[in-house]
Structure formats: structure tokens, C-alpha cells
Amino acid sequence: MSTWDVLVIGAGAVGENVAGQVVAGGLSAVIVESELVGGECSYWACMPSKALLRSGAVRRAAAHVRGSGVHQAEAPPVVDRSEVLARRNTFTSGWDDAGQVTWLENTGIDLVRGRGRLTGERTVEVTTTDGTVQLEARHAVVICTGSDAAVPAALAPAAPWTSREATSAEEIPERLAIVGGGVVGVEMATAYRDLGAAVTLLVRGRVLPGAEPFAGDLVAGTLRETGVDVRTGVSVTEAVRDAVTGTVRLSCDDGQVVVADEVLAATGRRPRTDDIGLSVVGRSDGEWLDVDDTMRVSGSGWLYAVGDVNHRALLTHQGKYQARAAGDAIVARAHGQGVADHAWGAHAATADHEAVPQVAFSDPEVASVGLTAAAAEDAGYPVRVVDYELGSVAGAALHADGYTGTARMVVDTERQVILGVTFAGPDVAELLHAATIAVVGQVPIDRLWHAVPSYPTISEVWLRLLETYGRP
Ligand SMILES: Cc1cc2nc3c(=O)[nH]c(=O)nc-3n(C[C@H](O)[C@H](O)[C@H](O)COP(=O)(O)OP(=O)(O)OC[C@H]3O[C@@H](n4cnc5c(N)ncnc54)[C@H](O)[C@@H]3O)c2cc1C
Ligand SMILES: NC(=O)c1ccc[n+]([C@@H]2O[C@H](COP(=O)([O-])OP(=O)(O)OC[C@H]3O[C@@H](n4cnc5c(N)ncnc54)[C@H](O)[C@@H]3O)[C@@H](O)[C@H]2O)c1
């Protein structure tokens, strides 16, 4: 039995951050990884997907500025597929984790390669290529095993692509059907359209159902205008792959049939907690893990669950935020120090509840933080919603000819603070952090009038939103 202060299972971005945080706090840490150090985000999610999207986004942006030399009729698709894929491959380091392993070594984090499983209080067995090893933690075990794509039963017989195949593909299918209109669905519809595939997006409800409705409508409309066959309110009931040609035939509940060369299941995630020994803490394998705000698994004093696996916010930046809180809480508890687990305390991931930022890098982008108008009303806040057309802002008009987009601010009228903001339009991603600061800081509306946006930037929409709301 080898012993460390903290044992982390899963070396995705989140596990790495937990381990880094506890080592910085003076504890020893070992991390157990069954695939690639760096996890989903580095090799099959954020990085390759954004790399696939970037070239098309640049070409689109140029096509919307007269005189750039790129004409609207020329974009999409991108000019050079193989260059896009090659650029994507540099961001995944060719699916080689040597660079991340060097980071672990330089940070003083030990690595055991293999599959980890809880065997008792603070003990983990790792199945390696050479057999099993037993590890023990003095203070805490942290589960950071992430999530896998959830494939609906109706699609499973056709062995669909998941986000892994979509982000690592070396060939672009001529016809790609995508099932699911969440973030993966719209981002991959945008990327594969830009790469020249004929894309059909099959959505059982609305596009981007978690966002403000105008955002999903704008994305659906733009995808349609640029050649994507977007069908909403439709469910796939059967999927069959032809054994000879490899083509996939999808039958839908409205009687339509879609034939494609490949189908992508973009239908959400399931926890990677199969067979990891959760009975040790009275839980069942295969469950999402409920945690308190310091990421401690409910009812346990030593087991933490951080990142996707706790299902609080399935985003890299939010998982890393949780990792900083949990890592520092583990260090404080190990040293017998107090833990600031009150709302917005140093050891509490309070922002997970009502202040999560997210950008969908679709065409156009959707950037949001905090509560939508509907979520704020459901939560019982007294709400006033303020909308402003981004195209009327001078900076946006300069940014792109015919700029189309909308900004929404959701205000708590009792406290006069902002509960949520959504921007939908070209290149809005970088606008988001100002909104995040306003929401997390609960900056009073009357003080925001003194935060002057530079002229002529798209950020001037802040002033327009305030003017529309009226000075309190
Ligand atoms: C297509 C796609 C695009 C995305 N884009 C973005 C984006 O742009 N921005 C964003 O913020 N988020 C994005 N996300 C979400 C983001 O990828 C996840 O939130 C993030 O990867 C979660 O990190 P994690 O460390 O919790 O889990 P993971 O990255 O999944 O890491 C878990 C690690 O644990 C290992 N593991 C699992 N079980 C065991 C075991 N028993 N023993 C040992 N090791 C184990 C796995 O091999 C893996 O390396 C995207 C997701 C997808 C699918
Ligand atoms: N840019 C980003 O931040 C980014 C990009 C991609 C993914 N992610 C994260 O990864 C996670 C997974 O993304 P996702 O798009 O797979 O999940 P999601 O939950 O965002 O969307 C899944 C969609 O599939 C639909 N769906 C579920 N089951 C279905 C079925 N049987 N048939 C038809 N439709 C079905 C749902 O209604 C939903 O609209 C998300 O939590 C997301 O936040 C983030």
C-alpha cells in the first residue's frame, strides 16, 4: 500500500487542477488516469471542437465586411479542410499526453496509469496493465472521472458517432445527421457545415433549449439560411446502418426518413461512475454524485467529487473553479483550519448555482451567464427583462455589415441587480466576462451607469441596456 495525502481519480482538466491546488497547499498528491492525462476537454471536446470551428468563423467574419476580399457567397465552406484538420491536430498534440505528463512532473504530482476503484475508506485499487496496485490517502479521495456521451436506445443500433468521433475525425462525411440541438449539436452543425458536409440537425424540442428562446431561434435561422437542414419537434425512433454501404437510415416520429453517411448522437452526457466502488459510501455505481459547496460527497467526510461527475455545471471552467474551492478546502481541513463554506466563501463553489457563464461557439455565438428570464421567474425573483438589438450599436455595425443579434439583461427589480445576461450574435463571446462580473459582483444598476463602455465597441450595448431599463 502506497500512501499520499490526497488521491485523485481522473486526470482531466479538473483532476489536474485539484491535484495542483493541494500540492500548492503543501500536501502530497497522486493522480490515477486510465486514458490520456488532460481528459476530454484537451483531446475530444473543448480544444478540438473550437479548433474545428475557428477557421470557418474567421472566413465568415471576413465575408461580412465589405472590402475584405472574401465574398458572402464564398463562405462557408472553408477553403482548406485538410489544413483545418491539421490545425485541430496540433491542439490535441496528436492525442499524445506527454506535455501534460511533464506538467504533472514539474508540479510535483505523482501519476499512476490505470483504472481506479474505491475499495474502502480512503483506499483505491488501480488496475494497471501489469496487475493491481493499492493506494491510500491520508486525507481525501477526489473523484474527477467526468462524463461520457449518452447515446439514446433508438440510435445505438447504428453505432453513431459521439462527440469523440466528431471532434477527432480525419474524414468529413458528405452527409452528416446530428441528433440533439444542445451545445454539441449546434457547434458540430456549424463546424461540419463549414467543412463542407450536408448537415441535417434533428431536434426534438427547441434549438439550445437551456438558453433564452431568441438565442436558439437566431442560431436555427442562421444555420438554415446557410444550408443546414434544421428540423425541430422531431424525434428519431429507429436508426439502421447499411452493412454494405455504411450509410445510416433514420426514421422519425413524424414519418420522415433521413439518410446520411454518418450520424452524431449529441444528446447529453452520463456520469463516468460505472464500477468505481461507490458502495463504499452507500451509493450506487452509475450515479451522478451529489456534493456540498466544497465538493464533498453528501454524507462522507473524506470523499469529494469535482467536475462533470457531480453534474453541477458540465463545463471545464466551472469544473476548474470547483477544483480550486475543493483543493483549498481539503488543505484547510488537513491542517485543522476553518473552512469558509458560506455563500461566496473561499472554499465554496457558490457561482455554480446562479452565475454560470457559457459560450456556444455556433453561428452566431451565444454567450450567457446566470439565469434566463424564465429561470429567474421560476426561482421567484421579481424580474424585469430588457432586450436590445445589437445591430443598432455603432460598434456592432462597424464590426460586420448587417450585424444581427440581441442582448438581454434580466434584472431583479427589488435588489436592482442583474440576475442574467445573454448575448446572441457574431463574435459576442468576449463580451461575456463583463456580464459575469456584474452578476457575481451583484453590482447595483445605479453603479453600472458609471462603468462606461468604450466607443465604438459592441460593449456599448451595456449603455443601451441601461438606458432602456431607465436610471433608477
Ligand atoms: C464536444 C464537447 C465540447 C465541449 N466544449 C466545451 C467548451 O468549449 N468549454 C467548456 O467549458 N466545456 C466544454 N465541454 C465540456 C467539458 O469538456 C467538460 O466539462 C470537461 O471536460 C469536464 O472535465 P472533467 O475533468 O470533469 O472530466 P474529463 O475531462 O472527462 O476527465 C475525466 C478523466 O477521468 C478519467 N477516468 C475516468 N474514470 C476513471 C477511472 N475509473 N480511473 C482512472 N481514470 C478515470 C478519464 O479517462 C478522463 O481522463 C465540451 C464537451 C464536449 C463533449
Ligand atoms: N461551448 C461549450 O461550452 C460546450 C460545447 C459543447 C458541450 N458543452 C457541454 O457538454 C455537455 C454536453 O453537451 P450536449 O449538447 O451533448 O448536451 P445538452 O444537454 O446541451 O443537449 C442535449 C440535447 O439533446 C436532446 N436529447 C436528449 N436525449 C435525446 C433523445 N433521445 N433524442 C433526441 N434528443 C435528445 C436534449 O433535449 C438536449 O437538447 C453540455 O452540458 C454542455 O454544456 C459545452
3D structure, described in words:
The chain has helices at residues 13-24, 39-43, 46-63, 81-91, 98-107, 163-168, 183-194, 213-225, 316-334, 351-354, 373-378, 394-399, 432-440, 445-448, 461-469, and strands at 2-9, 29-33, 110-113, 115-120, 123-128, 131-143, 147-149, 175-179, 198-203, 229-232, 236-241, 248-252, 257-260, 262-265, 269-271, 303-305, 357-360, 365-370, 383-389, 406-412, 417-425. By secondary structure, the chain is an alpha/beta fold. It folds into 3 domains: 2-38 and 97-148 and 271-351, FAD/NAD(P)-binding domain, CATH 3.50.50.60; 150-267, 3-Layer(bba) Sandwich (FAD/NAD(P)-binding domain), CATH 3.50.50; 364-469, Enolase-like, domain 1. The strands form 5 sheets. Strands 1, 2, 3, 4, 5, 6 and 16 form a 7-stranded mixed sheet that branches. A 5-stranded antiparallel sheet has the order 17-18-21-20-19, with helices on both faces. It is globular, with a radius of gyration of 23 Å. The mean pLDDT is 97. Bound molecules: flavin-adenine dinucleotide (FAD) and nicotinamide-adenine-dinucleotide. Flavin-adenine dinucleotide binds at residues 9-15, 32-35, 39-41, 45-46, 49-50, 115-116, 144-146, 163, 167, 184, 272, 276, 307-308, 314-317, 319.
